[in-house]
Amino acid sequence: MEARNRFGVVSVFFGIAGLLAGIGITEAERVRIPGSGHLLTWMDRLGLVRPPPPGQAPEWRPRGLLDLTDDRVLQWILVYSVCFAIWALLMALLAEQQREESSSLGLGFILGALALYVHGFEYGMSALLAGGVALVLIRRGES
User: Fold this and answer.
1) Nearest 5°: CA angle at 38, between 23 and 72?
2) Is the pTM of this model over 0.85?
């Protein structure tokens, strides 16, 4: 990786991560059965769930801040997907400001906008329009 093209490459990386997370969350929400507890079942198979002591019945406990449920995991992936997409857009604009090669920064910007588009048409189009305006302002400020 050249030092001259570092923000563009980072933009592509964040764009790919955001897009993959966005597609993953969309597919997981599409095929998930509410209340099925796939995460708990998987963690139980791995031996990460502590069974009740011998001779005692399982009991309900209040939810803690760090308790993992299927819904909470999906929400965190959604947050990360949006954050990665926004970082891809910002890194692409920063790469443009630093006058890096346009191939990687353009790809990173488009991937970031696509990652937002997965969550909603209006988000992706807003990102493209705002980025286009920012690009025009950056290029106008240079001349």
Assistant:
1) 65
2) no
